[in-house]
Amino acid sequence: MEREILLEVKNLSVAFGERKKAYYAVKSVNFQIYKGETLGLVGESGSGKTTIGRAIMRIVKASGGEIRYKGEKINGDISRQLDHKVIREIQMIFQDPQASLNERAKVDYIISEGLMNLEPELSKRQRKWRVEQALCDVGLLPDFAGRFPHEFSGGQRQRIGIARALIMNPDFIIADEPISALDVSVRAQVLNLLNEMKKRKQITYLFIAHDLSVMRFITDRIAVIRKGEIVEMAETEELVTHAIHPYTRALLSAIPMPDPRRERNKKLVIYNPSVHDYSEDKPFWQEIRPDHFVLANQKEGEDYRKRYRN
């Protein structure tokens, strides 16, 4: 059965600065997200993960390529009707739960602001009911609506951010490192909440993080990005157990082990970009194992197939 493509990114590039001073944070990125799945986008800090999420949200302008949502191009100049559709159906959970909430506004206003803009016909009572429902969905008390963000813990603030996204009944959520600013004890709660919302409300996620151990828990597929380019993509278990690209293998080796002895004796893989010679033989997207794609040149592709075919 063929899966429905919810979002498609084609040759997306994002540059900051102009002409000769332009710096390309994202370089000709391609991927598809299927309806109902969670695609993980993983890479070290500065690799372009968040920029891709913000380009989809149209917070930053795409310099080239296309972003298609349900078959319609949503980057560049779009109609007001499509703009409203995108704002309603695509929401973002930001990395820092403190910086992303207006400290001067009460929780009620923070969560319902989107409703005020896109559903002005709602009565005050209807809006209040929707806010209380959103708070209950994320495990917070309805009474919290009358408080300010500074009165809450980091985990509670992140739940408020999630409630702000959920109240719009979105089809697609971009979760930008939603647990990186939280205590370890709270992280599992937030991840379980996101998984529960996915099942209950049929939400599709783009989950952005730098921690592959978290990715293994919540994602269906993983795309690994380095310096604005996706270097490897596969289903989660396939990628974790049969990582091919040297950069992915380096990321996996950095995951801490709960056993102190194994952690002490493990071999850390250091990625060295000089192992690739792309001076003449240029890299391209190749399927090395079934549905397991890697950015490699012809020589590397042949070598990978010999080493990782089983």
Please describe what this structure looks like.
This protein has 310 residues and is an alpha/beta fold. It folds into two domains: 5-242, P-loop containing nucleotide triphosphate hydrolases (Rossmann fold), CATH 3.40.50.300; 243-310, no CATH class. Helices cover 37% and strands 25% of the residues. The chain has eleven helices and twelve strands. It has helices at residues 49-57, 80-89, 107-118, 124-137, 154-166, 184-201, 212-218, 236-241, 246-253, 260-265, 298-308; strands at residues 5-16, 23-34, 38-42, 64-69, 72-73, 90-93, 172-176, 204-209, 221-226, 229-235, 284-289, 292-296. Strands 6-7-8-3-9-10-12-11 form an eight-stranded mixed sheet, with helices on both faces. Strand 9 (221-226) and strand 10 (229-235) form a beta hairpin. Helix 3 packs across helix 4 (124-137), helix 3 packs parallel to helix 5 and helix 4 crosses helix 5 (154-166). The protein is globular and about 65 Å long.
Compact summary:
The chain has 310 residues and is of the alpha/beta class. Helices cover 37% and strands 25% of the residues. The protein has eleven helices and twelve strands.
Query: Could you name the CATH topology of the largest domain?
Result: Rossmann fold
Helical content stands at 25-40%
Q: What's the pLDDT, averaged over the residues? A: 90
Please tell me the total number of domains. Answer: 2
| CATH evolutionary superfamily of the largest domain | P-loop containing nucleotide triphosphate hydrolases
Tell me the radius of gyration: 21 Å
CATH architecture of the largest domain: 3-Layer(aba) Sandwich
Shape annotation: globular
Tally the helices: 11
SSE pattern, N- to C-terminal: EEEHEEHEHHHEHEHEEHHHEEH
Order of adjacent strands in the largest pleated sheet? 6-7-8-3-9-10-12-11
Our measurement of the CA-to-CA distance between the termini, rounded to an integer number of angstroms, reads 26 Å
- Low-confidence segments: none
% residues in beta strands: 15-25%
Q: Structural class, from secondary structure content? A: alpha/beta
Described by strand count, sense and barrel closure, the largest sheet is: 8 strands, mixed
- What top-tier CATH class of the largest domain fits best? Alpha Beta
- Give the number of DSSP strands: 12
